[in-house]
Design brief:
The complex is a heterodimer of chains A (about 100) and B (about 250). Chain A contains two helices and five strands. With about 100 residues, chain A is an alpha+beta fold. In chain A, strands 4-3-2-1-5 form a five-stranded antiparallel beta sheet. The radius of gyration of chain B is 17 Å and the shape is globular. Chain B has one domain: Creatinase/methionine aminopeptidase superfamily (Creatine Amidinohydrolase). In chain B, the strands form four sheets. In chain B, strands 8-7-9-14-15 form a five-stranded antiparallel beta sheet. Classes of the chains: A alpha+beta (about 100), B alpha+beta (about 250). The interface between A and B is medium-sized, with 18 and 19 residues.
Chain lengths: ~100, ~250
Amino acid sequence: MNDTVDRGGIVLSSAGHDKGKFFFVIGTDGDNYLLLADGKFRPIEKPKKKKIKHCRLCAQCGSEKIAEKLAGGVKVENAELRKALNMFLSEEGMKLGK
Amino acid sequence: MVTIKSAREIDLMRKSGAIAAEALRLGGEAVKPGATTKEIDRIMHDYVKKKNAVPAFLNYGGFPASACISVNNEVIHGIPSGRRLNDGDIVSIDFGVLLNGYYSDTAATFCCGNVSDEARKLVEVTKQCFYEGIAAAAAGNRLGDIGYAVERYALKNGFSVVYDFVGHGVGTQLHEDPSVPNYGRKGKGLRLSEGMTIAVEPMINQGVPEVEELQDGWTIVTSDGKLSAHYEHTIAITDKEPLILTSL
């Protein structure tokens, strides 16, 4: 079973006040938590620490450019996250806020 | 981790599922007294290859064939062989397809010639167990609702569900999270959300629920030697009725 998600992946929050929102995975905290940012509600400077079991994986890699930057330790702008997230959602036919 | 599929991905899974469904139909057609399970496997394998898809079970974990064909007291994971089918056998065929990176998984139990009333009832109840289960599979409900519905219908008809093997998520991997048991408590378990793709697969025994593994390391049989049937589709959860992705 696929328990891991790479940095640059996209998840949907399935519980909590941000339920139904999509985020980029920008890191992990231990085995049970992901660090999430969407560049809007959660900026990259202040990511949301969220339990893996409260996330649903939408894409292992939401944007190669962002994944590469995160892997290389290069700063990712919030605007980049927002743009890539919107592009992913429109290309994949996913509905925001569902 | 549980995955959510986009509309594009569900469309791809439906294409994969259509090939699996047609292969299963062909396999079911070939279930006749005198046919060998190997011949049925070959028919299904050849069809999938013709469609430029990949039989998903072949070499999966070392499985030596394209279809799992389980006869009578065999529950699942039967290895196709030179065994000839007899009039009155019930034959469970489980089949998976990989197309464009997406898996689909489906199964059904077929009657070979004239089967006993009790065997036919088992096959029909198993199929209905699946439909009872997916009737509870709407976004917002929980996994326990599916399992509860499956088990309740099986028990009501005097049969038992296999506890040792369960359904599963399907997508870019053949077996993904979550596990989808054929038993459960109403309102308990993971909440179903739109875009989840899962294989619901009731395995229903005529006698006791216990099963054993044969020495071949694959075939699972009922521990009391009584009959077992299997029915499965890959479904996508929506906010209304689920979509059956492995239908013709």
